[in-house]
Amino acid sequence: MALLQISEPGQSTAPHQHKLAVGIDLGTTNSLVATVRSGQSTVLVDSDGHALLPSVVRYLPDGSIDVGYSAQAAQSLDPQNTIVSAKRFMGRGLKDIDVSMQPYHFVETKSASGEMLQIETRAGIKSPVEISAEILKALKVRAEKSFGLAKNSLELVGVVITVPAYFDDAQRQATKDAARLAGLNVLRLLNEPTAAAVAYGLDNGVEGTYVIYDLGGGTFDISILKLSKGVFEVLATNGDSALGGDDFDRRLFCWVLEQSKCSPLNANDTRLLLTKSREAKEWLTDHPSAQITSVLSTGELVNVTLNTKQFNELTQTLVAKTLTPTKKALRDASLSIEDINGVVMVGGATRMPQIRLAVAEFFKQTPLTNLDPDKVVALGAAIQANTLAGNKNDADLLLLDVIPLSLGLETMGGLVEKVIPRNSTLPIARAQEFTTFKDGQTAMSIHVLQGERDLVTDCRSLAKFELRSIPPMVAGAARIRVTFTVDADGLLSVSALETSTNIEASIVVKPSYGLSEEQMLAMLQSSFGAAESDKNARMLGEAKVEAQSLILAIHAALQQDSHLLIETERKAIEAQLHTLEQLNQGQDADAIHQATEALNIATEAFAAKRMDASVSRALAGKNLDSLEI
Amino acid sequence: MAITLTQTAATRVEKFLANRGKGIGLRLGVKTTGCSGMAYTLEFVDDMHPEDMAFDSHGVKVIVDPKSLAYIDGTELDFTKEGLNEGFKFNNPNVKDECGCGESFTV
What we know:
The complex is a heterodimer. Chain A has helices at about 70-75, 130-145, 170-180, 190-200, 245-260, 265-285, 310-330, 355-365, 375-390, 515-530, 530-560, 565-585, 590-600, 605-620; strands spanning about 20-25, 30-35, 40-45, 55, 55-60, 65, 80-85, 105-110, 115-120, 125, 160-165, 185-190, 210-215, 220-230, 230-240, 290-295, 300-305, 340-345, 405-410, 415-420, 430-435, 445-450, 460-465, 480-485, 490-500, 505-510. Chain A is α+β, with helices and mostly antiparallel strands. In chain A, helix 4 packs across helix 9 (about 375-390) and helix 11 (about 530-560) runs antiparallel to helix 12 (about 565-585). Chain A is elongated, with a radius of gyration of 31 Å. By secondary structure, chain B is of the alpha+beta class. Chain B has helices spanning about 5-20, 65-70, and strands at about 5, 25-30, 40-45, 55, 60-65, 75-80, 85-90, 95-100, 105. The interface of A and B includes residues 142 and 147 of A.
């Protein structure tokens, strides 16, 4: 018979209608799946008892696909068809990654959604989305077995998948696409640090500011979250995408080589010693010393012993390297160590005592370590999935996420008008009215941007579309309502509506790929440092737009009504106009502003004459009664 | 008249209750849905109703409403694993027929 789980009071489900949901930590190195059973979040294991699934996909000669440990084992035998760390390529173009460091044959395909990197394997050209989908499929099968679903013809209601806080729209969309390919219904994408905080129940705890220190196999991420009214706000993120537990193994490996003075190693011996180094590292977590013994293929014997003190000295520069981004993140968030209410440790590498010690000393408090650091993100995702699937009482707050970078659109002069500011809680919809710039303008280009800076060139372009068939009107008369909608996963759709005619155009942002994590982080950081220059650039941009608009108007007026002016008047205006046109090519906002003012004043009399002339034209041949006054 | 837990089930329930951080016990019950008449329910208990019956089994408070008790009296609740799946199982002596999946039953 079916096996039952304990429900919350009053939340028992009818037979065959269990709202089964899982949380998935789709990691660069390893992935996990977890679920809430009888009120407790647990990681689901495979039939061998492994909780982790290495994020490795191998395309075999017979056409089958291998995922996990067996694929990982074949990595050095079949490097071109064994894809590791596909997450690093999600939503990326070729120009974003260092191809020389990768064993794969990359190809780039142009599609409607932009240029996206793909990998040529013996099974054909595979996109990172398809590769990630294979990992998700393997986890889905594991979950279904764990629930006995196949036997009872039940289905998963949905999943929550975690993504790094700095993932942009392209990367989030790619993750969602991978889930769809794997046949999973995504309830929500959740930021990894937020998931870790949820696993520790911080969302039910005191409001405050928390640091999530995530040192994984190959990446380091630091996130500062602020919890208020059940909403986690990402105050700052930082990190090092090339620093992780693997670097500790390599440091130890180099030391072993130095100590044993071996001749240059072949690939097999290198792998052997790296594995031994990793085992020694893990051993040192609970033991005072570790011995590394091995016989190499050359017959040389390696036998060295290492104590924790030596290991700490060897790796202290690596530990220190994690504190630099941590300090930067604190500075970005304008916080000091005293403001931090708690520190959560995530990632297997945070088991190392010297790391826990360094973090404890830096933050002057003991970090939270009682949950398994490899599992904490998946556990949090499962808790969120359980809530979203409707297995909790309504009284339980539904945790919300926020958008990581502001969304806006381009206005005249290459400026960005922010429509949704960063850290707005999701889901959200905001509308703003825009107008035409030129007389008779019948189309408007909507350029959607993401970033904190004031200039288009400093922000990331997400999408462009056009609103056509605007009825010709004088500049500024059209009313164009642009609505930005971001759903609960942080994905954006934009629509533009000309309100007098109800002409509409819209786009779901399938962003043009092409921004690396480093650029993403750099964009966020540069906005803090560039506030002053951004302000000046904005003033210059605005002055130029104003000047250009006046220049256009005066040209039009001169063409139409220059007969109203006597020669000297016309010459004076033309001279002023010329001056402004010259200045408007330059970069001096003040001068442009003054010349614009001057031209305005110089043309006041002309404007008055045109008004008179137009009134007398309108009134000519009409009697008073026919006028509606 | 009694409802009992196996030792394994009791240990699990205690663990789940401790992890949940609140709750006074475990409620067993039946409701009239499902493909074969009745279905079991299994819930944490925060509040007891006046008509509820309570039993103690291996230190866990087991709570049943009198209507449900008629259908499940004598039941022993076990916790078992079937492959990767794990959960609670009702060993109910009153059952005459079950649906294929065992989630609902008739007496």
